[in-house]
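Service request form, structural biology core

Requester: graduate student, group of Dr. S.
Request type: structure prediction, single chain
Budget code: on file
Notes: please return the result as structure tokens.

Sequence provided:
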Amino acid sequence: MRADGGAAGEAGVPARGSFSEELNAIQKAAGHEAWNKLSAMLALPGEAPAPAAVTAVPRASFGEGESSIEAPFYLSHSALRRFLECPMQGWAASMLGLAEEEEDLIDREEEDFEVDRLTETVLVRGVFTESLAAGESPEELYRKRVERLRLAGQIPVGELGRVIEERHLGIIKGWQAALNALAISGAGTAAGRPQLLERVRLGRSKSRSSTERVLDPLAIDIEVKGKESDKKVIPVQLGGLTEGLLKGQPVTINFVPRKPFKDRGKGAVTGSFRYFLRGMIDQALLAAVGAISESDGERQILLCFSGGPEENATYRMRLQPAEQAKALKWLTALSEDFLNGHHAYLLPVEAVITHYFESTGGGQGQQMLFGMPPAEFAAVIEGSELVRLIANMAGNSWSRFSSLWGPVPSPRGYLPPDAEEAFQMVTRRFSPVFEDIISLEVVK
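Core staff response, request fulfilled:
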């Protein structure tokens, strides 16, 4: 959010008007009943609605009301990723125009009283990714960026500032070590290195970097429900800024500024899966627009964790070659789900991956997880078990899951869908994900 209360604007989308104008636009587009439901979810004003009221109101459609959407509706691919993480928080954030493209919400679990966590995450990860894309020294680029933040009062000066800089540069060295361990050439610290990464922006933005490659957004038609049984089709543009991609290869790299997970079992799989979702959505979007294809061969998503030079590890997810038709079908289905409901229910991705891991027994050795075809995926998913897991998460004040971060207050007070609906949602939204997974493994 901007200091004046307006939405900051999603990357790839022009800056919007005031916050009140944004809310008016959302209210007009969503229709009367949908707006009332969103207002209730956000508790504006008053407390969060009672749990019993969450699923009692029939879901109105995005296309209700007298107004119609004639111009293409822009939907960020990061909104779809957040929707998979938590439908309730992802949908509410998008309807309010709240962009969190550069923030990984799980990092808020780790309190940092020296530097705002969002500032730190964006700074360190942004510097390293930009250095690989531009062929610059990450240390030099870091010092340029941090000087501006010091002048803005966001980074301490003096001895505390020196300690923070040392920690940040240690994280960068950990990522460099991880790339070296992967035998990715040019990952050293010297300036004049080859450009290893590129980021692709689908849709245009005034703040575009010179290291980004720009493509047109994906244009799809989405059928939305109107009043009663009425339906209509609205044009949707799906776009955004991808994570770093190895040049000339279908490999996404996500740099995570935190220590690796201690175990290599359920905890590591559950904790890392939300990071992998970034790469999955990125690659699906690129496949749908034809930027990567089946001829490129097996795809990979690399998560490089670093808490310092000696505290780093890389997790690798291997995926089947990209198929344009399959990617387009999945993104269209997700967009239809997103735009055709209120999503006032708890369905965090942590419950999905925990249930899948426990039902399949996980992986073996270095390989922590395997995928499976849709029919087999549906056979291992039990709606009643999902509901039980979600209820346990919500009832345990020590548990941390995706639904805890976002604009909807008191998320533990919401109910999961009923068992059959939970089963249908998970199989529809996640079976294409697990169909493409070959394995998830620890590289180092």
